[in-house]
Amino acid sequence: MDHPQHVVHLEHDGKVLLVDDSGEGPHEAVKGRVIESPILRFPTPVELSAMGIEWTSKRTVSLTDVHPDVRVDFGYPAIAWPSHWPWKDDLISDNAVHPVARESVYRTIHRVVSKVIVTDADGMVLMVALLGVTLWACGRCPEATSTTTNIPQRDAYVRRWRNLASPST
């Protein structure tokens, strides 16, 4: 599949518009599908105009690490929720979808990442167990400080920690 140089990543509450090589769509993504070569991609601005879909551009990115000279506009369509468009979660695991579209969607998926290490007054790394939003247990991680990850007794400690962190009924 030849890929256009300028495509539009239209997303509406988890739904994404995919078209075939001739610009016809929408087409469904199939989670886990494996085929020889991609057959689905994002539409071009001209194809969106032909479909009668108006949209607002939010930002533009270059995905040259995936495909040379490709520009992707992220946009929001001025339409009601498109129940017939594929879910973006299905799109990233379907290799019938062009890598530009899969990577573009993957980069928009929210991830929760902790960037905080809590240490005590001695500089020892603390581990915290939560049960819902309630603090259940807290303890030191042996041999771990904020400057090292050397934990020689890790496996034994993890087993003890799991027992401590598991509430008894």
Topology:
Blueprint: E1 6-12, E2 15-16, E3 19-20, E4 40-41, H1 45-51, E5 55-62, E6 71-77, H2 88-91, H3 99-106, E7 124-131, E8 134-145, H4 154-165
Parallel strand pairs: 1-6
Antiparallel strand pairs: 1-2, 3-4, 5-6, 7-8
Can you put this structure into words, describing what you see?
By secondary structure, this protein is of the alpha+beta class. The chain has two domains: 6-106, no CATH class; 124-165, no CATH class. Helix content is 18%, strand content 28%. The chain has helices spanning 45-51, 88-91, 99-106, 154-165; strands spanning 6-12, 15-16, 19-20, 40-41, 55-62, 71-77, 124-131, 134-145. The strands form three sheets. A four-stranded mixed β-sheet has the order 2-1-6-5, covered by helices on one side. It has a two-stranded antiparallel ribbon with strand order 3-4. It starts with 5 loop residues before the first strand and ends with a helix. The model is unreliable at 148-155 (pLDDT under 50).
